[in-house]
Amino acid sequence: MAVETPTTASTDVTDGCIRIRLHDVAWDTYVALRDQPSNNGVRMTYDNGELLLMSPGFRHGRRWNVLCRLVGEWTLERGLPLMSGGDLTMRIKEKKLGLEPDNCFWSPNESKLRGIDEWERRRDPPPDLVIEVDVTSDSLTKLHVYAQLAVPEVWHDDGHSLRFLRLAGDEYEESTHSVTFPDLASADLATFFDRTFEDEENAIVRDFRSWIREHFDASS
User: Residue 11 domain-assigned?
Assistant: First the structure.
């Protein structure tokens, strides 16, 4: 991976996630790195010359996969539309910002993306929901980028607890209930999500499905 020589650089390995921080990286260098097919497995966050490269580890993958499966189960059982954007690269050239989430979804705005092959920031709505799983504070540093993209909701998991964050002005504030799925409380979802390393994934999803059917009418 060839980049311009940064003024400083640091490397960190936490819970199997490798993070490399580069400083004074030009926008064009970031774009070239991001668009290089060999870097598809690397998550990048760029903020005015600061570049964080992250390779997810096993623990990270387990948590975001379970969380995404719960999102899918909720929408399926509640009869809601859903479109996943995966780790979609979102960039704002004029502000020199760019990043990928662990996953992102459209539900209220799903119909506006139907039939579209490539998401374009100036044409298409931002994701209704972004998921960020991180055992460090890196995800929190991404929030101002998501705010610039006008993403209305971020679910942030720090490896220990899950928080629903809603956009209020140009900042995010914690919320007890989801903006995207107003009937869903963070405490209720956490009851199942917290079992990620205790139970088998399908068992967690099945129990979540049973809970939804017990508490909600899918037709409502």
Answer: no
